[in-house]
Amino acid sequence: MVGLNFGRKLIESNFRNGPASTFFDLSAVCDLNQQRANAVGEELGVSVHHSLESLLEDPDISALALITGPAKRAKYIRQIIESGKDVMTTKPLELDSSAALQVLQLARELGRVVHLNSPAPFPSPDLSQILEWQSSHELGRPIAARADVWASYREEADGSWYDDPELCPAAPIFRLGIYLINDLIRLIGNPVSVSVMESRILTGRPTSDSAQLSLRFENDALATIFGSFCVNDGHWWRNSLTLNYENGTVYRNVGPTWGFDPRFEPELELVTYDGTVQQVKKKGIKGSSEDYQWGAFYQAIQGQPQRGELGPEQMAISLRVIEAMKRAIISKKIEEV
Q1: Is 263 within 8 Å of 152 (Cβ atoms)?
Q2: Degrees, nearest 5: CA angle 168-183-197
Q3: C-alpha 26: how far from its chain's center?
Q4: Paired residues of 283 in beta bridges
Q5: Which residues neighbour 174 within 8 Å (Cβ) at sequence distance 6 or greater?
Q6: What is the C-alpha separation between 34 and 30, in angstroms, rounded?
Q7: Which of 33, 57, 161, 223 is the most buried (most CB within 10 A)?
């Protein structure tokens, strides 16, 4: 595990009897903060490294979870894959879409595996169900979408990349809304233009704590994504989605859920109308689009055939959206993707 800020949380949620533990043994931790690395390594009983270079020299480690900030992450991925190891990383993949695309293409040339949780290599169960409904219920063309994610953060400035508008643009969209950008790309298609609004209401950081991104897609569908760190209602990180089609509407985690458990599974609802009767279909889903697909990562490392995996070009689309969003923040205009 490289990077023990969010990486420490990932160890708790995914490796301690979590989904990653089915496929991988955690054998080492790495962080530039020596005190942090030593403390985590001692607690887990694993080897400790204070540099990526030191870790890459270990012949017994075949794959790394790279959980560092997105800036210049392509450089670290390049070091890892050129050393003959595979990579699981996290969203957003990079700030520079060109650098990301180049290193993903290099990984393919070298036969190395680079996966991340968003966009995941394969559609998550909730997105797979929506795509199946599109076909089986002849929903027609997508018309529009509204997507929301919020949480209750009372963060203070700490000098990290979270404080830098250049490294963390429209912060709630970049940090949380990136899941929804990738979901909409998978469900609707490629965005062609964006605009953005942001505000700073409660946070102690100099970056925004509420933001809204608008998108127009190649097929002329329209979408908005709202993100905020300011809402304390117990319904955090739900990634709610309302998706309108010509012949129906799909809802994901829309509306209140009483007795809400943060470990919830997605709930989908499809509403259609045949001219006489409105039909409603509900379905609970195990597994969502924020999850790390450790099983797929393991199979890819083992060289097992996997059809339908996202290619480098598809993985870089949302990064171009972020670049256009950064331009829109400065220009206050609609910017092309």
Answers
A1: no
A2: 40
A3: 22
A4: 268
A5: 92, 168, 322
A6: 9
A7: 223
pLDDT in tens, 30-60: 999 999 999 999 999 999 999 999 999 999 9
Mean pLDDT of the chain: 95
SS3 3: coil
Q: Which of 65, 147, 104 is nearest to 314 (CA)?
A: 104
- Contact 93/107 with Cβ under 8 angstroms? no
User: How far is residue 148's CA from residue 169's CA, in Å, rounded to a whole number?
Assistant: 17
Whether residue 319 is predicted with pLDDT greater than 80 in this model: the reply is yes
Distances (CA, A) of 92 to 181, 227, 291: 11, 15, 14
Residue 235: predicted pLDDT:
86
Are 89 and 294 a contacting pair, CB within 8 Å? no
Q: Strand 114-116 vs strand 142-150: parallel, antiparallel, or unpaired?
A: unpaired
Which SS3 state, helix, strand or coil, does residue 10 take? helix
Token pair 């739900």 in the structure block, residue? 238
pLDDT for position 261: 56
**Quick one: tokens of 148?**
């929301």
Predicted local confidence at residue 203, as pLDDT:
85
Q: What is the pLDDT of residues 232-279, one digit of tens each?
A: 998 899 999 999 999 999 999 998 876 555 456 788 999 999 899 899
Give the per-residue pLDDT at 12.
95
Cα separation, 1 vs 279, in Å, equals: 47
